[in-house]
Each structure stands twice: as C-alpha cells, then as structure tokens.
Amino acid sequence: MFEVSSGLATLGPEALKIIGLVERQIAQWAQEIGALEYSYPALVSVEELSRVDYFEDFPHLGTMACTIRHDRLESEYANRKEVRTNVPGADLEDARFALPSAACYGAYFALRGRVLSRPTYITTLARCFRHEREYVALERLWSFQMRELVCIGDAQAVQQHLSSSRSRIEAFTRAIGLPLTIAAATDPLVEQSSARAAMPPFPVKEELVYRGNLAIASVHFHHNFFGERCEIKLPDGSPAFTGCVAFGLERWLAALVDHFDGHADRIAAALESAYAEADGPLPPSALERDQQDGSPESSPVWSQAKKRTADCYNATADHYDDAPNVFMVEPGRRTVAQLGLSPGAVVLDVGSGTGHTALPAAEIVGPTGRVIGIDLADQLLARGRAKAAQRGLRNVDFRVADMEALDFPDGDFDAITCTFAIFFVEDMVAQVRRFWRMLRPGGQLAITVWGKRFFEPMKAVFWSAVRDVRPDLYRAYHPWDRIDSEEAITSILLAGGVQQAEISHITPTAWVQRLDRPEDWWLTVLGLGMRWTIDQLTPAEVARVREANVEWLRTHNVSIIETNVIYAVATRQGRAP
C-alpha cells in the first residue's frame, strides 16, 4: 500500500484511494461553510516567513529552497558524470525561499493589506515539509500532504468555525469507529498576539489524537497575530482574527491502516458509509444562508441529511407513541415543570415530535399564552395537532421548520425548550447562540438530552445484530453521544454565550423503562431513530435482526432498558419587561 524511506513516502493505488475518500469528506465540510479552494505557490519567501517570526519559532522545521551558484556550475557540475550523494553548501546560493511547513501560510500572505468586509473561508491543499531529528513511518514525515480549512474574520466567526469543525471531525471519526482524544497544545505565535489577554478564554491549539500519540488533525486559533503581521483588517480598521483546521493526510492513512489492521477494503467501506450515511442534519451552508425561498425544502442542504432525518422520523410516526415508548412522555413534562411557566407566556418548543413537551407547556400558559412547536417531520407534527385538538388546546401551533434557519426576532420568547433534539445539529454551540438571542431578558432555555448508557443493554445488542447482517450500516457513534454528560452540556452552553451564573441547573436523572415482553423492545426500535437503519434492510435481514434482539432478551431474562436523562436550564440575565 505504501513505502517509506528517510521521511519520504511512496503511496500506492490503495493508499491514494483511502486519502481520496478522506479528502472527499473534508471537501464536503468546505462546501458546507462556503470555503473557496485556492492553490498557493509551492515556495514561500524568507521575507514573508520572517515577518511572522518563523525563524524565531520554528527554525528546526525549515527546509530551504535554493539553487547552485552560477560560478560553480561550469567548474564543478557541467559535463561531469558522477554519482553525487550531496551538494556542498559552498556551492549553493543564499536561500531566499523555503518549502512550506504548513498550508495556511499561503492564505495569509495572499491577503496581505486587504480589508475584509465579511469572514473569509478558504480551503487549500499543500505539499508540506518539516525537517525532523527522527522520522517515523507515515506518522512523522519530511514531506507530506496537508489540507486546511481556514477562516479569517472577527473573533466570533473564527471561534465558531473552529468549534464546528472540531465537532465535524469528532462526529466523522466516531461514525467510522476511529477512537480519538482531544489534547491541548501550545502555539508560540499566539503568545505574541496583542488581543489575547483581552479576550475570553478559547483554546489556542487542540490536537485530535489517535491512540495517544498520533495527531491526525489540529485546530488553531491564532487570535489576531496574522492579522497584525500581514496587515489584514476588519472594516473598523482592527486586525483580523484567523484560525485554521489542519489535516495531515498521511497521518489519517496511518491511523486508518492501524485501526482496520491494514484491510483497505474495510477502510474504504467505513469511509463510504460514514460519508453517505452521516447522522443528523448538516450545519447551514453558504447556499442555505443565502436561499431565496423561505421554505425549508428549498435549501440544497434539506435534500441531503435533513431530508433523511425528516424521512426517518416520519416513518416512526406509526409507532412513536406506542406504549413501550412512554418513556418519552415524562421527560417532556419534567422539562416544562422545571421552568415555572406563567399564564400568558410565549414558548418555542424545538424538536416537538408529537408534542411531549409542547402540549404540557400549552396547558400551563393557557389561552392567553402561545406555544410554537417545530420539527422536520410533518407526520409527527400531524399527530401532535390531533392530540392538541383532543385536549381542546388552541394555543399551540405545530410547524415544519428547521431549527438552524429560524427567523424569529431577538427576544421573542419567554422560554425555549429543546427535548432530545439539539444533538441532531452538528454545531450545537451555534444553535445555543440562536436560542439565546431569541430569549427575552429573564427568559429560560431548557435543553433535555439522553444520559450515558441510554437504551443499554439493548442498544449494543441492536447494533451488534445490524453489524452481523449489514456491516456497512453499523454505527459505533450516535449524535447524542456528544452531549451525554454534565460537562459536555456546560461546555456547549458556555461556548454558546451563556454565562456560568446564568446556568440554573444541570440535573442527571437515572430512569429505566420496563419491557412487559421482549417484543416491546422492537416497537421502540421502530418508533425512534433506529427506524432508518431498519428501513435500509431487506425483509430477511430485518427478521434476523429482530430475532437476535428478542432472543437475547429472552435468553438473558432482561426486562428493563436504561432511559437516563439530563435536564439543563439557563436563565438569561435581565428583568423581564
């Protein structure tokens, strides 16, 4: 698949195919953020590198590009046929150029002296060079390929780009079963940024590390260092902020080969599956932000993952409210109860489904109040409308809408509830910001998510059975895994603009759902997000998966599943009008 010698790698067709599949995924992320592709010169001037302190901070990495001196060409090289192992330094001109050690330098140098009216997103691929004391297979090369996603703009735009990119990488690697940890790192460039001390804390560099020692991607927040040194300015004349997400493609190859024991076909299948079957809606793209038609279906993004999400949950409508799924009801009631809503309040319920949260809220706010419930699945909402009519509730309005494209004014709601839904958005931090701006002073945001071990032990049994019949559909990762702890919720709230003092409480609650008979578990499978996987199987495969699940329950005499929940409430500071 590949050969490596002296820090230089030769990649064969299988290796190139794997890298191509990784590149395809990164290209999709670039498209989602509206990044434009640029190719920069393969050489970087010594003068430009000096302006950004390269030779003070990274001289050990430098690989210089220089030519043979003209006065030595005739006497030492012309017409002399011999095998050389080196060219003496005395024969070389002074180096005025270097080979780049990172791809993003070209982007910053190309924007020198520019004033940016809006955040600029760039993606670029470069052959990079880093001189090392020791080279280690694909993990540490002298010459390698680096793909970067770069944002240049105000601090908030850059930080959002970095946060959402990290979430994308985590989701993708979980989907293919590649274990990663996040490790904080240092960046000497940022120490020299004049804005650093005045800004709220934000990691300057984080590495996404495979098995403890192989960083396959890194996230860098440069503050305004490159803005200052390259004179890239914002409309108010201040230096622009910059941030980049870097992918070492040969390192991705190394991690994948190690994780899948060198089986190229398994690697390709995992990458193809993760690309085609990505869980949850995609984040808003530049096209989506600029769409002409206000309906959700008009967005190009809708036709991809969001349409799949809508189709999945529309398919669950026939079993969503079945008796074995009653565990969905109580969290909705509790979410509303902890808010202390008053009659006349205006509430937005996001991810309403059939109204487990919206209907209790409508009962409390009364006829002088109003509840708007939104969801992507119109068939679930239809059931919610029917239940509202049965209860005589005329103050609740169920609408098909995308939580990432809501156009409600700032400060429009007394409360916003989001029960078992926020994890379907890839950039949860940005979603919290959207919610927060729509709350009035004194308004409350309630986010309810599944806790750890949700659906165990049967979740593991289900996916094991799926893997046995259709390995390409196996999921080691699910979107709710990203926010199944108090720490994760706190981090997302704080990053989304909520102050620590505004977090009222985060309460994990242990729950179980009793199964009266083994077949009840299958009604849960058909009534929730696992339904999409079932609908991809042939009838024979469905029968095998169902039988494996039911038989496991009988054999192990299991009659309960865990339905642990975490409730979080934040109250926006200020007095209500």
Q: Give me the Rg, rounded.
A: 27 Å
In the CATH hierarchy, what is the class of the largest domain? Alpha Beta
Named CATH architecture of the largest domain? 2-Layer Sandwich
Tell me the total number of β-strands.
Answer: 21
Which spans have pLDDT < 50 for at least 5 consecutive residues?
195-200, 278-303
- The name of the CATH topology of the largest domain is BirA Bifunctional Protein, domain 2
The end-to-end distance, rounded to whole angstroms, is 67 Å
Q: Summarize the biggest pleated sheet.
A: 7 strands, mixed
Helix content: 25-40%
Average residue pLDDT? 87
* Beta-strand content bin: 15-25%
What is the overall shape? globular
Describe this structure in words.
Helix 16 (458-469) runs antiparallel to helix 20. The radius of gyration is 27 Å and the shape is globular. Strand 14, helix 14 and strand 15 form a beta-alpha-beta unit. It has two domains: 2-41 and 101-276, BirA Bifunctional Protein, domain 2 (2-Layer Sandwich); 288-455 and 479-512 and 562-571, Vaccinia Virus protein VP39 (Rossmann fold), CATH 3.40.50.150. Residues 195-200 and 278-303 have low confidence and may be disordered. The chain has 577 residues and is α+β, with helices and mostly antiparallel strands. The protein contains 20 helices and 21 strands. 43% of the residues are buried. The strands form five sheets. A seven-stranded mixed beta sheet has the order 3-7-8-12-11-10-9. A seven-stranded mixed beta sheet has the order 15-14-13-16-17-21-18, sandwiched between helices. The chain has a three-stranded antiparallel beta sheet with strand order 4-6-5.
